[in-house]
Structures are given as structure tokens and as C-alpha cells.
């Protein structure tokens, strides 16, 4: 290869980079992955070390098992609560989500929900007169949805998911059966199923449905789920449940203790290891471009030897094709730092600003048992009302008020401060904790060019790389969706006899917006999108329908940053499907 490091150089070892590496190496392509974070959790022993870190941590936050390296800082809850973290937030509203910079990326601590986008989500401007249209449609992506569901190991039943226009190929079903509903799911379904809700000129009938999840259940015939990360051996054989079926630990976020949930390192482990090289602790700082023809000639990166130190050396990686497969924010940051901005890079940042709704059920609901969420209400993800306000969906939580008030620890502390101890304390907790109900109302957000990721030489990290500057606002379209979501969950609570505590002080650290005189506390879902949007025209988009850069034809920029819209679905399955589609284009380019 004339001294090239690889045929394809990929930036990022998260789900997009891992799927590309697996697909390409299995076709005989030599791949180099440059990962900014440490190469942690690559084997059984290091994964266990992260479990120990989590067990020993006092706050059980998303970041607890996955501490940041000095050379690869990352956003965390401090960015939202204290505004002094990795993000430089300039407002007017606070961006409330985080992600991880380590091998495996945010799949190390995601919830695993794998909803497909609705067909209408791809045609928002055409069907509803708002937002953007995708340059491809649902039918173009459907074969790759099937492929992604097998790569990630999704558990669900087609019979439950075929609604709101979602169609499946004849004879297809998910690789594994749906996860069993939690006791909370079943109790709420008895009360909520059949509830009629008016939105605009339509009436919707609600139904609790199981969520497709990248979490091992009972495989269908012919499917073998991926097990634990690392090579199988004697040590793994002593832990027969490791990497097998979900055991119902309520800790999918921040870590699955038995690796029943998919993470990107499982895909890396399935790549052709003879053709794959991973250089962790290697922060790409610049895309090198030939000024004459716009061809990318290499990637400049900083390699640091120790996670706790910023000492580093500067190196260059070269290949035939280059793929930015980092996080949506990091992809934009790399392009901007390289001077590769035609006025569209970093624009259109989206998330799902979500409301929490919580209260006490009339009877115990089995709180703190099972995966954190196994079902929700999807009926309000689509409809004619989207011409005037955002769609939304309601996740049912199985983890009590952990996310909203810090339960059960906060409940114990509050009870003790009120003088309860011994039998009285135990009786109080037995009466209250099992009855805790929690919903998360994920609200759609449209592409807005004013929501941006930019860089500023005044704000750099320890390696001298720019920190992301986030300018974020939630518009009236989304706020109106929040208001509609609040009306719906109040109807549901009334129907189910749930004592509403959503306005209690426990959630007041969340940022808030005001709409028509009412305040709405929200949190981010970690669903970043829209920072290098795809489209049919280089004048209005950063990449084409294959996620190939318009300006630099041997550069691909992949991931949820390419999304023109996101609807209400978690982005991982859709970006995995897009990446698998792009892999075909990359292979075709290499073959030309």
C-alpha cells in the first residue's frame, strides 16, 4: 500500500467506527481506528475494573464507571448543573446531554432502545411543512435497519412494532424475542390501554408497547447473540451468565454488569483482527487536505501515553479513504478545527429535550427491578398535529425515582432526617419505594441553524484542542410539544390513580424553559444529531446521501450528525443502519 497506514482510516471506536471496521475488514480491507479515549473494556479484566469503579463511586451517574482521560475530556452532568464542564455553553438555553470518549463510546452506557424512525420522519417538510426532508426515505433504509438489528442483537416482535407506518419485509422478525414486560408495564397497561387522547383534529388511542432493545433475550432460530467482550477462555467460562441473557439489573445506564447489552466493542471483537489496528489514546486534531484538489492526505493526531497526563506526541495517519466516525459534536469540532467549514458545519444541533413525570402508584409497581425501561407509549410519535407542534413518546421507567430525585438513597436520607429509624424507617421505605412510578417524555426537536457547535481559541483543553462551544435554544414548536406531553401524562396519571409528584423540588436542578406562562424542567436524552447534515445539494448540506463529504470526496462523515431530522426515536439504530449503508459505498470506492 505504498507506505500507507491502512486502506481506510476511521476516527472513533464507537458504534459507527466499530460497525465499519467489522464490515470492511471482513471484505479484506485494512483498517486503522484512531480512538481519542483509552482502550478500556476491550477485554474481560478491564471491563471488570470498570464495574469496580462503578461499585466504589458515591454518585451513581452516567460517568461513574467511565472516567475521562486528561487528553480526551468529555461532557458530564457538571455541564448541565454547574456549567463548568467540557462544554462552553452560551445559551440561551442549556444543552442537557453528555457522551463518552473511550473505546466503545456511549454504547458502553446507553439504555439500548432501538426504535426505527417513522416513514414520515424522513419527509417532515413535505408532509408537515416544517423541518427538513432527508435525501433518502424509509424504504431506502429498511434493508439496513434489518441488518443493523442483527448486528446489534435487537430483541422485539414485529407484530408489536408494525404501527404508525413502520413496515417490515415479508417473513422478517427481530433476531431475538421481545424482553418480557415488567410488572410496572403490565399494571400501567391495564389502566392506560384504550385511553383516548385528542391532539389537533385527531384522536389517538394509547397502548403500552414493548421497546425493541439491543439486549439479549431468547434468540430466534438461527441467530446467535454476541457474548462478552474479549477472547473466550477459562476465566470467562467460569462466568456462564456473562454476555448471555439480560438478568434484569436496573443499571443499563451506566453499565451492564453481565454484558447482556450490546456495546461497540462486541463488533470490534468480530472484525478480522489481522486487518484491524486500533490506536487508542490518539486524538485527531486536524484533517490534512491538498489545497489544490481538496483531497484528504492524512489525519494529524496527538497520542498521549497515560490517561492521567496530557503529555503527547504528534503523529500523522494516512490511507486511501478517511472516515470521521466520532460523536456528532466531535466530528463537527474536527472539521471546524481543520478549517473545513463552508458555513454549514456544526449547525442544526438537535436532542430530545425530555420531561420527567413521577409519582406514587396506588399499589406497588415493582420499582428498581428489571432493565431501566422495557416499554413505553409510542402512539403520539406521528400525526397531522406535527404541522403545529412536536411529536413525543413516553418511556416507562422501572428504576423508581432514581433519575429524578436520586432514589432510593435520597429517600433514605430524607426519612432519617425526619427522625425515622429502625422498624419505622423500614416500614416507611417498604410503603413508598415499591410504588415509585417514573415516565420520561421525549420531545421532538427540529433542525435549527441557530443551534450550533463552534470553536473558540479562548477555550481549549489540556492538549490545546478546542472545547465545543454550544449555542442552544428550544423553540416554540418543541415547547408546544412539551405542553402537549404534560397534558397527556397527567391524563394517564389520573386514569391510573398515580399521585403526581412531578413538581416536587427533587427535579429543580434541571434546566427549564417557559411556554405560555408555564415552566417546564427538562433533561437531555443524550441524543445528539444534526451537526453535519446530509442532503441532495452541497449548498445546503455537509454530506451527501452516502455520508460522503461534498467538498472532499475521499472523506466520509458518518453518524447521527448527518440526520436532517430525528423524530422521536433514539438515534443509535438509525445511525447504525446509515453506517452499514455507507459501508457499501466505501467498499465500492475502494474497488473502483
Automatic annotation (TrEMBL):
Pfam families: DAO, GMC_oxred_C, GMC_oxred_N
Signal sequence interval, chain numbering: none
Swiss-Prot/TrEMBL keywords: FAD, Flavoprotein, Oxidoreductase
Domain FAD dependent oxidoreductase: 7-43
InterPro entries from the UniProt entry: FAD-dep_OxRdtase, FAD/NAD-bd_sf, GMC_OxRdtase_N, GMC_OxRtase_C, P2Ox-like
Cofactor requirements of the protein: FAD
Keyword Glycosyltransferase: no
Domain Glucose-methanol-choline oxidoreductase N-terminal: 246-354
Domain Glucose-methanol-choline oxidoreductase C-terminal residues, every copy: 450-578
Domain of life: Bacteria
Family: Belongs to the GMC oxidoreductase family.
Name this polypeptide is given: Choline dehydrogenase-like flavoprotein
Amino acid at each position: 500500500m505504498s507506505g500507507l497506514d491502512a486502506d481506510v482510516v476511521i476516527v472513533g471506536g464507537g458504534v459507527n467506527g466499530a460497525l465499519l471496521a467489522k464490515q470492511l475488514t471482513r471484505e479484506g480491507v485494512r483498517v486503522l481506528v484512531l480512538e481519542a479515549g483509552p482502550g478500556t473494556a476491550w477485554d474481560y479484566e478491564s471491563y471488570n475494573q470498570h464495574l469496580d469503579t462503578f461499585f466504589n463511586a458515591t454518585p451513581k451517574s452516567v460517568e461513574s464507571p467511565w472516567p475521562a482521560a486528561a487528553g480526551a475530556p468529555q461532557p458530564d452532568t457538571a455541564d448541565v448543573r454547574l456549567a463548568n464542564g467540557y462544554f462552553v455553553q452560551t445559551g440561551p438555553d442549556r444543552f442537557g446531554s453528555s457522551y463518552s470518549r473511550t473505546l466503545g463510546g456511549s454504547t458502553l452506557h446507553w439504555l439500548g432502545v432501538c426504535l426505527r424512525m417513522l416513514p414520515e420522519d424522513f419527509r417532515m417538510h413535505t408532509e408537515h411543512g416544517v423541518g427538513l426532508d432527508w435525501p433518502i426515505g424509509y424504504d431506502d433504509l429498511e434493508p439496513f435497519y434489518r441488518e443493523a438489528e442483527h448486528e446489534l442483537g435487537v430483541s422485539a416482535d414485529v407484530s408489536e412494532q408494525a404501527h404508525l407506518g413502520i413496515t417490515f419485509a415479508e417473513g422478517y422478525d427481530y433476531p431475538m424475542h421481545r424482553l418480557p414486560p415488567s410488572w410496572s408495564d403490565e399494571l400501567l397497561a391495564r389502566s392506560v390501554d384504550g385511553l383516548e387522547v385528542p391532539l389537533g383534529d385527531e384522536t389517538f388511542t394509547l397502548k403500552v408497547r414493548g421497546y425493541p432493545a439491543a439486549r439479549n433475550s431468547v434468540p430466534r432460530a438461527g441467530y446467535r447473540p454476541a457474548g462478552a467482550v474479549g477472547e473466550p477462555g477459562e476465566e470467562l467460562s467460569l462466568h456462564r451468565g456473562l454476555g448471555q441473557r439480560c438478568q434484569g439489573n436496573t443499571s443499563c445506564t451506566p453499565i451492564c454488569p453481565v454484558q447482556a447489552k450490546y456495546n461497540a466493542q462486541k463488533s470490534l471483537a468480530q472484525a478480522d483482527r489481522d486487518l484491524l489496528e486500533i490506536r487508542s489514546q490518539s486524538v485527531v486534531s486536524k484533517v490534512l487536505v491538498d489545497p489544490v484538489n481538496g483531497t484528504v492526505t492524512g489525519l494529524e493526531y496527538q497520542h498521549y501515553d497515560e490517561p492521567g497526563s496530557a503529555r503527547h506526541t504528534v503523529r500523522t495517519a494516512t490511507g486511501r479513504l478517511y472516515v470521521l466516525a466520532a460523536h456528532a459534536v466531535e466530528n463537527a469540532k474536527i472539521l471546524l478545527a481543520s478549517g473545513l467549514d463552508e458555513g454549514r458545519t456544526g449547525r442544526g444541533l438537535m436532542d430530545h429535550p425530555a420531561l420527567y413525570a413521577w409519582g406514587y402508584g396506588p399499589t406497588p409497581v415493582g420499582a428498581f427491578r428489571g432493565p431501566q425501561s422495557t416499554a413505553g407509549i409510542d402512539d403520539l410519535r406521528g400525526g397531522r398535529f406535527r404541522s403545529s407542534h412536536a411529536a413525543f413518546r413516553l418511556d416507562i421507567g422501572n428504576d423508581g425515582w432514581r433519575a429524578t430525585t436520586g432514589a432510593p438513597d435520597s429517600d433514605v436520607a430524607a426519612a432519617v432526617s425526619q427522625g425515622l429509624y429502625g422498624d419505622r424507617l423500614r416500614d416507611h421505605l417498604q410503603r413508598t419505594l415499591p410504588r415509585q412510578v417514573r415516565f420520561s417524555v421525549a420531545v421532538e426537536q427540529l433542525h435549527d441553524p441557530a443551534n450550533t457547535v463552534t470553536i473558540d481559541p479562548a477555550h481549549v483543553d489540556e492538549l490545546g484542542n478546542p472545547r465545543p462551544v454550544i449555542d442552544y435554544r428550544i423553540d416554540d414548536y418543541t415547547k408546544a410539544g412539551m405542553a402537549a406531553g404534560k397534558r397527556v401524562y397527567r391524563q394517564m396519571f389520573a386514569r391510573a390513580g398515580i399521585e403526581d409528584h412531578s413538581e416536587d423540588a427533587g427535579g429543580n436542578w434541571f434546566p427549564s424553559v417557559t411556554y405560555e406562562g408555564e415552566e417546564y424542567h427538562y433533561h437531555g436524552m443524550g441524543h445528539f444529531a444534526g451537526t453535519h447534515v446530509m442532503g441532495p445539494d452541497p449548498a445546503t448540506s455537509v454530506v451527501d446521501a452516502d455520508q460522503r463529504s461534498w467538498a472532499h470526496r475521499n472523506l466520509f462523515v458518518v453518524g447521527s450528525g448527518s440526520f436532517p431530522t430525528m423524530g422521536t426515536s433514539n438515534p443509535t439504530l438509525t445511525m447504525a443502519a446509515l453506517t452499514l449503508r455507507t459501508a457499501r459505498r466505501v467498499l465500492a470506492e475502494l474497488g473502483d
